[in-house]
Amino acid sequence: MTKEQAYNTLCDIAEDSGSTVEELLTALQVQSDSLFEKSISAIPETARGYIKSAHDSRRTARENARGAEEKEKLNAEIKRFRALFPEVGAEDIPDAVWEDMQKGIPLPYSYALYLVTEGNGNAYANGVNERNGSAALPPVNNEEGEGELTMEEVEAMSPDAVKRSFPQILRSLGKWKI
């Protein structure tokens, strides 16, 4: 049985009993602790202390093993990420990727998904800008430094024309009524 199948079974049992998975698991833990206490109740106090200590040590060992497994999994993800994206530093990874990772998506996959979706967005924006730039009116004045430009003239310019005429636009800004 996979972890997902086990979780789905827990969800079904919790729903059938009218509780949440958390409540069901808490009740199971309380029941398990109660059965453990009952099973060692007839043992002398000193032996009981040793048994409880061993029981707690076993629980701690399991928790440590899970933590080590999680850390190993994260290290493997980082190693794979470094192999796939060697030029990307941790500070270059956007928050959306970290959030996806917290939801269970491995880091390399989350970052690749980000690149694909971000790349499509940039390609779309570049296409729109290119279409708009080709449909825009040519600049009134291709010569730099001549005359003043109106706000309407600047708005009609292509991005390249704005770059070429930037000093002239800056000089004209003060005379516009906004």
Structure description:
- The chain has 178 residues and is an all-alpha fold.
- The protein has eight helices and no strands.
- It has helices spanning 3-17, 21-39, 45-84, 95-102, 107-135, 151-156, 159-164, 166-173.
- The N and C termini lie far apart (68 Å).
- 5% of the residues are buried.
Task: Present the secondary structure layout.
Layout: H1 3-17, H2 21-39, H3 45-84, H4 95-102, H5 107-135, H6 151-156, H7 159-164, H8 166-173
Helix pairs in contact: 4-5
Summary tags:
mainly alpha; elongated; single chain
Query: Span between N and C termini?
Result: 68 Å
Shape: elongated
The DSSP helix count reads 8
Mean pLDDT: 84
Structural class: mainly alpha
Using the CA coordinates, give the radius of gyration: 33 Å
State the low-pLDDT regions, or none.
Answer: none
Query: How large a portion of the residues is in β-strands, by DSSP E?
Result: under 5%
What is the strand tally? Answer: 0
Order of helices and strands: HHHHHHHH
Tell me the major beta sheet: none
Helix content: over 70%
